[in-house]
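Moderator note: this is an archived Q&A kept for reference. The question asked for a predicted structure of one protein chain; the sequence and the answer are reproduced below.
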Amino acid sequence: MASLALWQRPDDPNCADTVPAFEYRVRGDTLEYRWADVVPGFDMPVKATLAWPAMAWLHPTTSWQRTRVTLPNASDFRVDPNFYVVARRVDAPVAP
């Protein structure tokens, strides 16, 4: 059975059968991030590493956002595994 958000009915045409994707890119001390593969109006905060090794809250939207990070390496960025999301690193440049 497809996964459903708690507020959706199986017969809802806006019902998604994919896991929300947290798309991100770390460049230097800047994290760029957004939600992808989500239903309209999706609104869920998520915890991620902004200052290694601690987790902090982010409030992504479907538009690209930026914040500063303090990570030893870009590969040290993590999304809290307790959230049912796909963390997807993207390499394409993000528009300002």
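Archived answer notes: The chain has one domain: 21-89.
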